[in-house]
Design brief:
Length: 257
Protein backbone atom coordinates (compact mmCIF):
# COMPACT_ATOMS: atom_id res chain seq x y z
CA UNK A 1 0.00 0.00 0.00
CA UNK A 2 2.44 2.62 -1.21
CA UNK A 3 6.19 2.99 -0.94
CA UNK A 4 6.19 4.14 2.70
CA UNK A 5 4.92 0.67 3.69
CA UNK A 6 7.54 -1.29 1.75
CA UNK A 7 9.75 -1.71 4.80
CA UNK A 8 6.95 -3.28 6.81
CA UNK A 9 6.10 -5.61 3.94
CA UNK A 10 9.67 -6.77 3.39
CA UNK A 11 11.24 -6.93 6.83
CA UNK A 12 12.16 -10.48 7.85
CA UNK A 13 11.17 -12.01 4.51
CA UNK A 14 12.96 -15.18 3.39
CA UNK A 15 11.41 -15.05 -0.07
CA UNK A 16 10.23 -12.04 -2.06
CA UNK A 17 8.14 -12.56 -5.19
CA UNK A 18 8.00 -9.61 -7.59
CA UNK A 19 5.04 -9.82 -9.99
CA UNK A 20 4.67 -6.02 -10.02
CA UNK A 21 4.26 -4.12 -13.24
CA UNK A 22 1.77 -3.41 -15.98
CA UNK A 23 0.53 -6.29 -18.17
CA UNK A 24 0.96 -6.38 -21.92
CA UNK A 25 -1.87 -4.97 -24.00
CA UNK A 26 -2.50 -5.75 -27.69
CA UNK A 27 -0.08 -3.95 -29.96
CA UNK A 28 2.25 -3.33 -27.03
CA UNK A 29 5.80 -4.58 -27.53
CA UNK A 30 7.88 -5.87 -24.65
CA UNK A 31 9.91 -2.70 -25.21
CA UNK A 32 6.92 -0.49 -24.40
CA UNK A 33 6.57 -2.42 -21.19
CA UNK A 34 10.22 -2.09 -20.43
CA UNK A 35 10.53 1.44 -19.11
CA UNK A 36 7.49 1.22 -16.84
CA UNK A 37 8.28 -2.19 -15.35
CA UNK A 38 12.04 -1.62 -15.15
CA UNK A 39 11.47 1.46 -13.00
CA UNK A 40 9.13 -0.43 -10.65
CA UNK A 41 11.63 -3.30 -10.30
CA UNK A 42 14.51 -0.93 -9.60
CA UNK A 43 12.55 0.69 -6.77
CA UNK A 44 11.50 -2.62 -5.20
CA UNK A 45 15.03 -4.06 -5.38
CA UNK A 46 16.43 -0.95 -3.70
CA UNK A 47 14.00 -1.64 -0.82
CA UNK A 48 14.88 -5.36 -0.72
CA UNK A 49 18.58 -4.47 -0.41
CA UNK A 50 17.68 -2.28 2.56
CA UNK A 51 15.08 -4.33 4.43
CA UNK A 52 15.72 -8.03 3.62
CA UNK A 53 19.09 -8.30 1.87
CA UNK A 54 19.31 -12.09 2.40
CA UNK A 55 15.91 -12.99 0.96
CA UNK A 56 15.53 -15.16 -2.14
CA UNK A 57 14.10 -12.98 -4.91
CA UNK A 58 11.71 -14.46 -7.51
CA UNK A 59 11.50 -12.06 -10.44
CA UNK A 60 8.26 -12.41 -12.42
CA UNK A 61 8.02 -8.82 -13.76
CA UNK A 62 8.64 -8.77 -17.49
CA UNK A 63 10.86 -8.51 -19.40
CA UNK A 64 12.63 -11.03 -17.14
CA UNK A 65 15.64 -11.11 -19.52
CA UNK A 66 16.28 -7.49 -18.48
CA UNK A 67 14.69 -7.18 -15.02
CA UNK A 68 16.96 -9.86 -13.48
CA UNK A 69 20.13 -8.02 -14.62
CA UNK A 70 18.57 -4.77 -13.29
CA UNK A 71 18.03 -6.39 -9.88
CA UNK A 72 21.60 -7.74 -9.88
CA UNK A 73 23.02 -4.26 -10.56
CA UNK A 74 20.88 -2.65 -7.84
CA UNK A 75 22.04 -5.28 -5.33
CA UNK A 76 25.69 -4.89 -6.41
CA UNK A 77 25.50 -1.13 -5.82
CA UNK A 78 24.00 -1.77 -2.37
CA UNK A 79 26.69 -4.34 -1.60
CA UNK A 80 24.13 -7.10 -1.01
CA UNK A 81 24.31 -9.07 -4.27
CA UNK A 82 24.34 -12.86 -3.93
CA UNK A 83 23.90 -14.58 -7.29
CA UNK A 84 22.55 -17.68 -5.53
CA UNK A 85 19.51 -15.72 -4.31
CA UNK A 86 18.24 -14.08 -7.48
CA UNK A 87 15.92 -15.97 -9.82
CA UNK A 88 14.10 -15.07 -13.01
CA UNK A 89 10.88 -17.12 -12.96
CA UNK A 90 10.60 -18.92 -16.32
CA UNK A 91 8.31 -21.67 -15.01
CA UNK A 92 5.46 -20.50 -17.25
CA UNK A 93 7.49 -21.56 -20.30
CA UNK A 94 7.97 -24.99 -18.72
CA UNK A 95 4.24 -25.26 -17.89
CA UNK A 96 3.35 -24.40 -21.51
CA UNK A 97 5.93 -26.73 -23.03
CA UNK A 98 4.72 -29.60 -20.81
CA UNK A 99 1.04 -28.91 -21.56
CA UNK A 100 1.46 -28.65 -25.35
CA UNK A 101 3.76 -31.69 -25.46
CA UNK A 102 1.40 -33.81 -23.34
CA UNK A 103 -1.51 -32.89 -25.62
CA UNK A 104 0.42 -33.86 -28.75
CA UNK A 105 1.97 -37.01 -27.27
CA UNK A 106 -1.35 -38.04 -25.69
CA UNK A 107 0.09 -38.57 -22.20
CA UNK A 108 -1.12 -37.07 -18.90
CA UNK A 109 0.59 -33.71 -18.28
CA UNK A 110 1.22 -34.68 -14.64
CA UNK A 111 3.88 -37.21 -15.69
CA UNK A 112 5.59 -34.98 -18.28
CA UNK A 113 8.82 -33.06 -17.80
CA UNK A 114 10.36 -30.72 -20.39
CA UNK A 115 13.41 -28.58 -19.62
CA UNK A 116 13.21 -25.05 -21.07
CA UNK A 117 16.43 -23.04 -21.36
CA UNK A 118 17.60 -19.64 -22.63
CA UNK A 119 15.50 -16.67 -21.63
CA UNK A 120 11.87 -15.70 -21.10
CA UNK A 121 10.70 -13.95 -24.28
CA UNK A 122 9.92 -15.13 -27.81
CA UNK A 123 12.88 -16.71 -29.60
CA UNK A 124 15.00 -16.75 -26.40
CA UNK A 125 12.68 -19.48 -25.01
CA UNK A 126 14.13 -22.85 -26.00
CA UNK A 127 12.21 -25.98 -24.94
CA UNK A 128 14.40 -29.10 -25.08
CA UNK A 129 11.85 -31.62 -26.34
CA UNK A 130 14.65 -34.11 -27.08
CA UNK A 131 15.06 -34.37 -23.28
CA UNK A 132 11.32 -34.60 -22.53
CA UNK A 133 10.10 -37.46 -20.37
CA UNK A 134 8.34 -39.69 -21.18
CA UNK A 135 9.77 -39.73 -24.72
CA UNK A 136 7.02 -39.71 -27.36
CA UNK A 137 8.10 -41.68 -30.40
CA UNK A 138 5.24 -40.58 -32.63
CA UNK A 139 6.26 -36.90 -32.89
CA UNK A 140 7.70 -35.74 -36.21
CA UNK A 141 10.29 -32.98 -36.69
CA UNK A 142 7.45 -30.72 -37.89
CA UNK A 143 5.53 -31.43 -34.67
CA UNK A 144 8.57 -30.40 -32.60
CA UNK A 145 9.05 -27.20 -34.63
CA UNK A 146 5.36 -26.32 -34.11
CA UNK A 147 5.49 -27.13 -30.38
CA UNK A 148 8.61 -24.98 -29.99
CA UNK A 149 6.97 -22.04 -31.79
CA UNK A 150 3.79 -22.38 -29.73
CA UNK A 151 5.77 -22.43 -26.48
CA UNK A 152 7.65 -19.29 -27.58
CA UNK A 153 4.47 -17.48 -28.64
CA UNK A 154 2.26 -18.63 -25.75
CA UNK A 155 2.08 -15.19 -24.14
CA UNK A 156 1.06 -13.47 -27.36
CA UNK A 157 -1.54 -16.19 -28.02
CA UNK A 158 -3.19 -15.40 -24.66
CA UNK A 159 -3.05 -11.61 -25.13
CA UNK A 160 -4.75 -11.99 -28.53
CA UNK A 161 -7.31 -14.50 -27.24
CA UNK A 162 -8.33 -12.09 -24.48
CA UNK A 163 -8.66 -9.33 -27.09
CA UNK A 164 -7.31 -6.55 -24.96
CA UNK A 165 -8.82 -7.70 -21.68
CA UNK A 166 -5.53 -8.87 -20.15
CA UNK A 167 -2.60 -11.25 -20.36
CA UNK A 168 -1.73 -14.68 -18.97
CA UNK A 169 -2.71 -14.17 -15.34
CA UNK A 170 -4.00 -17.55 -14.12
CA UNK A 171 -1.26 -19.65 -15.74
CA UNK A 172 1.36 -17.16 -14.51
CA UNK A 173 0.00 -17.34 -10.96
CA UNK A 174 0.16 -21.14 -11.17
CA UNK A 175 3.73 -21.06 -12.50
CA UNK A 176 4.79 -18.48 -9.90
CA UNK A 177 3.35 -20.63 -7.11
CA UNK A 178 5.14 -23.74 -8.36
CA UNK A 179 8.50 -21.97 -8.42
CA UNK A 180 8.03 -20.21 -5.07
CA UNK A 181 7.06 -23.56 -3.52
CA UNK A 182 10.25 -25.12 -4.96
CA UNK A 183 12.33 -22.31 -3.40
CA UNK A 184 10.68 -22.88 -0.01
CA UNK A 185 11.30 -26.64 -0.25
CA UNK A 186 14.96 -25.85 -0.94
CA UNK A 187 15.15 -23.48 2.04
CA UNK A 188 13.60 -26.23 4.19
CA UNK A 189 16.29 -28.70 3.13
CA UNK A 190 14.13 -30.94 0.94
CA UNK A 191 16.68 -32.84 -1.19
CA UNK A 192 16.92 -32.78 -4.97
CA UNK A 193 14.58 -29.90 -5.84
CA UNK A 194 15.28 -29.04 -9.48
CA UNK A 195 13.52 -26.36 -11.54
CA UNK A 196 14.42 -24.29 -14.60
CA UNK A 197 15.22 -20.65 -13.82
CA UNK A 198 16.97 -17.60 -15.34
CA UNK A 199 20.02 -17.09 -13.09
CA UNK A 200 23.62 -15.94 -13.13
CA UNK A 201 25.29 -18.68 -15.13
CA UNK A 202 28.46 -20.03 -16.75
CA UNK A 203 26.50 -22.41 -18.98
CA UNK A 204 27.00 -20.10 -21.99
CA UNK A 205 29.16 -17.01 -22.53
CA UNK A 206 26.25 -14.85 -21.31
CA UNK A 207 26.19 -13.68 -17.67
CA UNK A 208 22.57 -14.85 -17.18
CA UNK A 209 20.85 -17.88 -18.69
CA UNK A 210 17.91 -20.13 -17.89
CA UNK A 211 18.64 -23.79 -17.29
CA UNK A 212 17.90 -26.44 -14.70
CA UNK A 213 18.92 -25.33 -11.21
CA UNK A 214 19.21 -27.36 -8.02
CA UNK A 215 17.61 -25.43 -5.15
CA UNK A 216 18.68 -25.62 -1.52
CA UNK A 217 19.21 -23.74 1.72
CA UNK A 218 21.31 -21.07 -0.01
CA UNK A 219 19.02 -20.67 -3.02
CA UNK A 220 20.95 -21.92 -6.07
CA UNK A 221 23.00 -24.91 -4.95
CA UNK A 222 24.02 -25.86 -8.48
CA UNK A 223 23.42 -24.57 -12.00
CA UNK A 224 23.03 -27.63 -14.21
CA UNK A 225 24.29 -27.82 -17.78
CA UNK A 226 22.21 -28.10 -20.94
CA UNK A 227 22.75 -31.82 -21.52
CA UNK A 228 22.84 -33.25 -25.04
CA UNK A 229 21.12 -31.04 -27.64
CA UNK A 230 19.97 -32.21 -31.07
CA UNK A 231 20.73 -30.19 -34.22
CA UNK A 232 17.42 -28.29 -34.12
CA UNK A 233 18.07 -27.27 -30.50
CA UNK A 234 21.68 -26.27 -31.26
CA UNK A 235 20.37 -23.97 -34.03
CA UNK A 236 17.82 -22.54 -31.61
CA UNK A 237 20.57 -21.88 -29.05
CA UNK A 238 22.74 -20.06 -31.61
CA UNK A 239 19.73 -18.00 -32.74
CA UNK A 240 18.70 -16.90 -29.23
CA UNK A 241 22.12 -15.80 -27.90
CA UNK A 242 22.38 -12.39 -29.65
CA UNK A 243 18.85 -11.35 -28.63
CA UNK A 244 19.30 -12.50 -25.05
CA UNK A 245 22.66 -10.72 -24.87
CA UNK A 246 21.10 -7.42 -25.94
CA UNK A 247 18.23 -7.77 -23.41
CA UNK A 248 20.71 -8.39 -20.60
CA UNK A 249 22.81 -5.39 -21.64
CA UNK A 250 19.70 -3.23 -21.84
CA UNK A 251 18.86 -4.10 -18.22
CA UNK A 252 22.38 -3.36 -17.01
CA UNK A 253 22.38 -0.02 -18.85
CA UNK A 254 18.99 0.95 -17.37
CA UNK A 255 20.12 0.08 -13.84
CA UNK A 256 23.23 2.22 -14.19
CA UNK A 257 21.47 5.31 -15.59
Amino acid sequence: MGEENLGKALEGADLVIIPAGVPRKPGMTRDDLFNINAGIVKGLCTAIAKYCPHALVNMISNPVNSTVPIAAEVFKKAGTYDEKRLFGVTTLDVVRAKTFYAGKANVPVSVVDVPVVGGHAGVTILPLFSQATPQANGLSHDDIVALTKRTQDGGTEVVEAKAGKGSATLSMAYAGAIFADACLKGLNGVPDVVECSFVQSNVTELPFFASKVRLGRNGVEEVLGLGALNDFEKQGLEALLPELKSSIEKGIKFANQ
